[in-house]
Amino acid sequence: MAQPLALQGLLKQLARLPGLGPRSAQRVALALFAAPTRLNDLTEALQRAAQQLGTCTVCGNLAEFNADGGCVCPICLSTTRDATTLCVVESVADIWALERGGDYRGRYHVLGGVVSALQGVSPDDLSLGQLEHRLRTAIPAVQEVILALGASLEGQTTSHLVASLVQRAAPQAILSTLAKGMPVGASVDYLDEGTLGLALAHRQRL
Amino acid sequence: MAQPLALQGLLKQLARLPGLGPRSAQRVALALFAAPTRLNDLTEALQRAAQQLGTCTVCGNLAEFNADGGCVCPICLSTTRDATTLCVVESVADIWALERGGDYRGRYHVLGGVVSALQGVSPDDLSLGQLEHRLRTAIPAVQEVILALGASLEGQTTSHLVASLVQRAAPQAILSTLAKGMPVGASVDYLDEGTLGLALAHRQRL
After folding, report:
1. A104, B12, B33, B162 — which has fewest CB within 10 A?
2. Count of domains in chain A?
3. The CATH number of the domain where A103 resides is what?
4. Which residues is A121 bridged to in the sheet?
5. pLDDT for A130-174, tens place per residue?
6. Residue B95: which domain range?
7. Looking at beta carbons, which residues of chain A come within 8 Å of B10?
8. Pairs of CB atoms within 8 A across A/B
9. Does residue A92 contact residue A114 with C-beta atoms inside 8 Å?
10. What ipTM score was computed for the predicted complex, to two decimals?
11. Which of residues 112-171 of B touch A (CB under 8 A)?
């Protein structure tokens, strides 16, 4: 028995989502049909999101369209956040993670990825041009750029790339990076040698 | 920073899907916004599915609406499939699994679940009334009912329930159940004692 076309189309779209495969797409499709309103609720949520959300033209965050049709996120619009500190992140999810803590009061720049030869991501695929333009034209000038990229090989390669860009476009700015060490709640015997080595090297006085 | 309302709504709907939680919902939402057409593709697939798909009024399978607005699945409409053999399954996903093999040429009945005290599923939540009506009114009469429910405690409880219903409503019908034993590709030393015991008890002559 061939599956109905409308079902095949839905399964194909669901299976393309990250973390879902053909089997879990089937499970999701059946769950949507199991409860009468769920299919419509999801459809409406997607439509609303498509109409109302865009990419912040300053930093790349996901944001609501403004009344004038432009799209600048609340963090870039805020007058209480420190405009002289810029935190460079890989994706919007990283902004969400940092905002959950609430410790950071500066602004962001979303690169849209990290350089990766394996995944075919080159520096041209990242928003480095926008970052350079932003650093050159910022008023007040940026005084610190925090590199908050992943502690992977690709993240570190990209950090070096961004660092040299910052030194060129905003020579006055301090460069910093997230501290490496033990995560909160970790136990020493489960830590890998790399993390343990860095935690030792950067040990702090009590 | 609070997330935009449209985004919160989308995340809530995505996180309700089986297999997705708050974190994976975020990942899915960002992936939908990362590629320009994906959000619309998914929305359209959902709309098409909602318009064109319903539950087969005979067996409970997921099927396209017919030209007359009714909804009977191709398996129930087919004249080449054996109408005297009925396979009772828990969900539509089980039909898909059995149809993938292509070994079964009879019809189905979807119960819509199994009795489970833990999950609050009572016999009234299953399509037992429809099954009884179907067995009493079937022309030609059903000659065999295959119980293809899970090999769990809940599945077996439900099998007993369905068996007594079949004996009452269609006393002429043979009752059978899926064979228990070694799955294809399994190695003996990884099998649990229960499966191994059943595989031994039901051993077959070469």
Report:
1. B12
2. 1
3. 3.40.1360.10
4. A116
5. 999 999 999 899 999 999 998 889 999 999 999 999 999 999 999
6. 79-177
7. 45-46, 48-49
8. 151
9. no
10. 0.77
11. none
